[in-house]
Amino acid sequence: MAEPSVVIEHVSKKFGEITALQDVSFQVFHGEIFGLIGADGAGKTTLMRILTTLILPDSGQATINGRDIVSAYRSIRERIGYMPGRFSLYPDLSVEENLRFFASVFSTSIEENYDLVKDIYQQLEPFKKRRAGKLSGGMKQKLALSCALIHKPEVLFLDEPTTGVDAVSRMEFWQMLKRLKEQNITILVSTPYMDEAGLCDRIGMMQKGKLLAVDTPDEITELVPMQLFAIRVDQMHRLTEALRSYPYSASAYAFGQVVHYRDRRKHPNEHELKEFLKVQGFSAVMIRRINPGIEDTFIALMEREDGTHDKL
Ligand SMILES: Nc1ncnc2c1ncn2[C@@H]1O[C@H](COP(=O)(O)OP(=O)(O)OP(=O)(O)O)[C@@H](O)[C@H]1O
Questions:
Q1: Could you state, in chain order, the average pLDDT of each consecutive group of 10 residues for the chain (312 residues)?
Q2: Cα-based distances in Å from 154 to 57, 66, 99, 105, 176
């Protein structure tokens, strides 16, 4: 097992009455891509801000490559890169000026660490005189990543780097992260996209300031044993509600073109379920057994945490 790079122990943070983080503990290993997933307000940004030494935790501790985030904040800042969720560039500076600025803050130059950003920055070079504010979403994101990397950080913190970015740029971005990982950079990245969660080495699922689970994408889907069905009918808009009223229903939610239905019996009876739906007036009922994905597991864990159903 690799050595831990980021160690978080019992970190809590409140803003007035709001609990942003509650007793969060986990580790990120050297050279790992660790994904934090959670809805808006789950506490992902607060955790990133604590780890990047921008705000202090109320309690608990954390270290980055052995350095304490409170007492050693200066040396940590030299060793990490941070790409905040909000636009972090200077819109009136050109592409090149932005990168030069971030390099100078860390007393380095573009030339000195060009190798690390070359893959990414090459794509921006034709636009290097363009003002950052005038770049497309995907290009802004590449520039922000270049700026976060230009001082050759040991650990990279990326807060929802692909939000609002088109699908192709999202894919390219993840390929870049894989290449950075190969250079032994540890990456902690938050994302609201479940398909991206599947690209991480391990993921942490967060809800309302709590860490619900940490595991590899494959293993995490085994955390909540469940029998899941993908169901399609002629009148999809009524289906979720009808399934929720079925006496054995644990949960039902729309999932793309189908509804994912979880039954709370050990050995659910598909035939009965089909009959029930027919009596409810549905036709062309198609029921398929499926294995839970990351999102299904996350929903099940959230429901369990919320106590919205105690049937699992
Ligand atoms: N400076 C602050 N003052 C007051 N409340 C805050 C502050 N920062 C965060 N919060 C609250 O703490 C909770 C966690 O917010 P946080 O931004 O960490 O969540 P998040 O998972 O990153 O979501 P988002 O994607 O919306 O940023 C939210 O309820 C938020 O409103």
A1: 90 96 97 93 94 96 97 94 84 92 87 85 89 88 90 93 85 90 94 90 96 95 90 91 93 92 89 93 93 93 74 40
A2: 22, 12, 18, 17, 16
Four-way CATH pick for 4-215: 3.40.50.300, 3.90.980.10, 3.40.50.12100, 3.30.450.20? 3.40.50.300
| ipTM score for this prediction | 0.93
> Is 0.80 surpassed by the pTM of this model?
yes
Does the domain at residues 227-306 carry the CATH identifier 3.30.70.2070? yes
Torsion on CA atoms 137, 193, 62, 186, rounded to nearest 10: -70
Residue nearest ligand 1's atom 1 by CA = 15
- The token duo for 275 is 């009959």
Q: Report the C-alpha gap between 107 and 16 in whole angstroms.
A: 38
* Ligand 1 pocket mutation pick from 11, 13, 15, 157 by most atoms within 8 angstroms of CB: 15
Cβ of residue 42 lying under 6 Å from some atom of ligand 1 = yes
